[in-house]
Amino acid sequence: MSLYSVVVPVYNSQATLVELHQRLCKVFDEKLSLDFELVLVDDSSRDGSFSKMQQLRQQDKRVKIVQLSRNYGQHCALLCGFKYAKGDYIITMDDDLQHPPEEIPKLIQVLNGDPEIDVVIGRYESKKHGPIRNFGTYLANRVSSAIFKKDPKLQLTSFRIMKRFVVEAMLEMHVDFPRIGHLLLMVSNRICNVVVEHDSRKYGKSGYTFKRLVKDFFANILTNSSFPLIVVRDIGIASFIISILLGIYYLYRYLLYGISIQGWITLVLLILSYSGLILLAIGIIGDYLIRILKEAKKIPNYAIRQCEMEDEE
Fold first, then answer.
1. Cβ atoms within 10 A of the Cβ of 32, count?
2. Where is 57: in which H helix or E strand?
3. CATH number of 3-224+303-308
4. CA angle at 43 for the pair 125 and 89, rounded to the nearest 5°
5. Hey, what's the torsion of the CAs at 192, 193, 194, 195, to 10 degrees?
6. 276-288 pLDDT tens trace
């Protein structure tokens, strides 16, 4: 019988972990009658999340727990969890119960129903996020569509099920700013959506602030695309053509009408604008070089502080 690994990044979620575990057990043991394991990765929580994870581990040895040495972010925590997941199929979901465990059978049914599908991602008809988070998700989806030639109708969410070879392929990649959705698009185009419920957050608030969403938006572009360099290049080409046309125009006026070229202010503004454009281009190139250097150094995306897995024989 196939084993299903449920990988959950945890951050300040001590209030939801017990209920999450109970509902997952009910789904897999009673409803589906399938073997599963739960891999919890503590992303350096500031509350008692890891202690709660240890309690769950003592009660149920199917629970694997990992604690990262500092806060690396949701996607790096997921990659860490993938390393320890042993399942034939890997499911990812959030720790805040906004992804109902009772919706997992929908993901499994669609994946098992079509051998040509490698990944099934939950799509929400009605999201219970705030307006800022929803807007950030919309922008990220548009960027992904443009960069990876993705169907705009395909939604990338963190509630998904994947075949094992997809996860193994992602673990072979080393990128400075990993995003699971983008890594999936690099591995396979056999991805589909299934409509699932999206519940309201019961405790706390989302860590995706406006500042973080903006940072992620630009980092996604710089990490996965040369779009900024293309824009700067096109601006430079257009500016060069305009400067030639203006030069011809001013020469024409001088030769035909004897009108001398005036306007020191215009000259100063042009110098400033071109200087700014050059500095902008240098800055963008520098950002790309920094990312290339980081990837060349093979700096790990996470560091494990401690973990508890299978009992040693």
1. 15
2. helix 49-59
3. 3.90.550.10
4. 55
5. -170
6. 778 778 777 877 7
